[in-house]
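Structure tokens please, single chain.
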Amino acid sequence: MAYTIDRYPCEDAPRLGAMTLHPVAESVPRARRWFRKLITPYYPACSVDDCLLMLSELITNAVVHGKSDEPWVVRVEWFREGTSLRVEVHNPGLPGSVRLRHPDADDAHGRGLLLVDSIAHSWHAGPSHLGGTAVSFEMADAWPS
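Here you go.
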């Protein structure tokens, strides 16, 4: 199965784009490249590099923690809502397993959501409209009002 990119959303819809990716590590750099390419024409005022860092963390978590007995994918969608940018990452994992951790200095993992929490205006985890889990972040004032 190939990955898919939605380059041409409906003109008046809040969704700016979407990607469907294989749940493999190689999807992280692919998503970064495509997100940068697809968000740049919208001229966001927020740091695209910060968004790419958070996107990388959320996709990595989705790949590592997504679980299903059937073949599955990671779905990424991003939206303009007023002056804010919201990015969602969907996987078939359990919403209750998403939590902010406070790892010890010598722990090798567990810092992804800490990065998101420190950079984003807000973030949320809960049930996905696609089934499974959605984890999202919001960048306030991504566009002038």
